[in-house]
Write a structure and sequence with these properties.
Length: 74
């Protein structure tokens, strides 16, 4: 899906937010190239605890560069 967005639209970056307790999702996002852009403290209250939200982004240049590296290694 990321590949489609960058190859078929004019978007220069994709952004998303993930709650700090969702470490598996965060790891997946990091593995495809997203980086942490900022942190929103105390974004969600759950069971009387405040949870931070991690804002991540992936830029077109980064994604397309990674795509070229994949093609060269084939």
């Amino acid at each position: 899906m990321v590949d489609y967005v960058f190859k078929n639209t004019n978007f220069n970056q994709l952004t998303l937010s993930v709650f700090a307790f969702n470490t598996r999702a965060k790891k997946v996002y990091e593995n495809i190239g997203l980086t942490i852009e900022s942190l929103d403290h105390n974004e969600l209250e759950f069971d009387e605890k405040w949870i931070d939200s991690i804002n991540m982004k992936l830029e077109r240049e980064t994604w397309m560069g990674n795509d070229n590296k994949k093609e060269q290694s084939k």
